[in-house]
Design a protein that fits this description.
Number of strands: 5
Number of domains: 1
Distance between the termini: 42 Å
Strand order of the largest sheet: 3-2-1-4-5
Largest sheet: 5 strands, parallel
Radius of gyration: 15 Å
Shape: globular
CATH class: Alpha Beta
CATH superfamily: HUPs
CATH topology: Rossmann fold
Order of helices and strands: EHEHEHEHEHH
Number of helices: 6
Structural class: alpha/beta
Strand content: 15-25%
Helix content: 40-55%
C-alpha cells in the first residue's frame, strides 16, 4: 500500500489545501492528513476544530484519513509506514524552506521522501497566514476557504 502523508497545522484549512488533497489522493492508496498541534504559535482554531473541519472537507474522498500529531514528522512517517510526505509549494521561498526541511528529515530518517506539489494556478496566493490576516481585519475570506470553514469562522467572530 502506497501511503502518503500531508502534514500541517491547517489553521484554517484553505481551498489551497483542498486542491492539493483532491489532486494527491488519486496518486496514492491512502492519504493521511496529519493535523499538527502547534507549539510555536497560537492558532485561531483548536486542534479538535481543525481536525473536524478537515474531516468535513475531505468526507467525499476515499482513501483519505485525518490524524493528529505532536511529534517529529519522522516519527509519524515510521509509525504509519508512510512512503512519501506531500508538501505544497507556491513560490520560490516556500520551496527553499521545504527543501531544507526535506533534507533535514532525510538526515533523521534515511527513507524519508518528500513530494512537492504546486497548487492550481488560481490558488497560488492562498495561505492560512493570509486568511488569518484578512480575518483579523474583518475582511471577506469566502474566496479562500471552503464553505464549512467559512461557517466556522463566522461562528467564532
Amino acid at each position: 500500500m502506497r501511503r502518503w502523508m500531508y502534514p500541517g497545522t491547517f489553521d484554517p484549512p484553505t481551498l489551497g489545501h483542498l486542491d492539493l488533497i483532491k489532486r494527491a489522493a488519486p496518486l496514492c492508496d491512502e492519504l493521511l492528513i496529519a493535523v499538527a498541534e502547534s507549539r510555536e504559535k497560537s492558532t485561531f482554531f483548536s486542534l479538535e476544530e481543525r481536525i473536524r473541519l478537515m474531516e468535513i472537507m475531505t468526507a467525499e474522498f476515499t482513501g483519505v484519513r485525518i490524524i493528529e500529531f505532536d511529534t517529529l514528522l519522522t516519527e509519524q512517517v515510521q509509525l504509519h509506514d508512510v512512503h512519501a510526505v506531500l508538501r505544497g509549494v507556491r513560490v520560490f521561498s516556500d520551496f527553499e524552506y521545504e527543501m531544507v526541511m526535506a533534507f533535514t528529515n532525510r538526515k533523521l530518517l534515511n527513507r524519508f521522501e518528500t513530494i512537492f506539489m504546486m497548487p492550481s494556478e488560481s490558488l497560488m496566493s492562498v495561505s492560512s497566514t493570509l486568511v488569518r490576516e484578512i480575518m483579523q481585519f474583518g475582511g471577506d475570506v469566502s474566496k479562500f476557504v471552503p464553505a464549512n470553514v467559512l461557517n466556522a469562522i463566522v461562528k467564532q467572530n
